[in-house]
Amino acid sequence: MATPPALRVMEAKARTYRRTWRASIISTFLNPVLYLTAMGLGLGTLVDQGTGDASLGGIPYLVFLAPGLLAATAMQTGTGDASYPVMAGMKWLKTYHAALSTPVRSRDLVFGHFAWVTVRIALTTVVFAAVMVIFDASTVGGAARAQLPAILTGLAFATAVTAYTARLENEYGLSSLFRFAIIPMFLFSGTFFPITQLPGWMQPVAYLTPLWHGVELTRAAALQTASAWQPMLHGSYLMLWVIVGAVFSVRNFRMRLTK
To answer: What is the pTM of this model?
Structure first.
């Protein structure tokens, strides 16, 4: 039985990563340690000495923070792999154009890309979850339960950003994406503090961001606490981003690569 072309695309990306994985050591292994040390142990000590436990539902700040950072890390991984690597395949290296000279279609490129990004997100979140356990920010069971919602969060961003990147003619749109969308979401979507502490007019904006839903779902899974909305609503909203992003990615790849 012949291997589906999308899996061939995924295999090609995995073979490339086998030779370049060392470049991702810092982001994959060191970032969780730095984040949890600086924000969880450093800032968290000050928060816990104040009124932190009361405002965070009676849990230490490190325990509150870790699942949110897990979801945010998945977002960053998915966004990173869906931005400049896609631009490279489209414009700089033109590897996508080369692939289309084989039986691979644009649709296969998209789903092979998503399959590999899912693997990358899973690898990153597993490492982060292990660091959470080492820092006593989560139990082994809580870290394991947080994996699926974190991966779903990363994939929601990966599909949407892939569709966005496929339409760009140059990389300036990517720097704007990170500056005006990804970084503000990282800071103001519930990762570091409950969004109820935001000004009233900003809270509805946070509700619209996929990261807030991912943070709520991941934190609820890790801590076995109630989320702001029903878990099904959070998950459905993230799946909507995945589906719509995938549809537009296929459309934009086809338009860009076959024109």
So the answer is: 0.94
In tens digits, what is the pLDDT along the chain, a chain of 259 residues?
668 999 999 999 999 998 888 878 777 778 888 888 887 667 666 676 665 555 577 788 889 999 999 999 999 999 999 999 999 999 999 999 999 999 999 999 999 999 999 999 999 999 999 999 999 999 999 999 999 999 999 999 999 999 999 999 999 999 999 999 999 999 999 999 899 889 989 999 999 999 999 999 999 999 999 898 999 999 999 999 999 999 999 999 999 998 6
- Residue 47, helix vs strand vs coil: helix
19 located within any domain: no
Residue 246 vs residues 36, 160, 224, 255: alpha-carbon distances, Å:
33, 7, 31, 14
Range of 100's domain?
5-14+24-257
Tell whether 248 is covered by a domain.
yes
CB neighbour list of residue 62: distance below 8 Å, 6 or more residues apart: 36, 40, 41, 44, 135, 136, 137
23: which 2 tokens? 């470049």
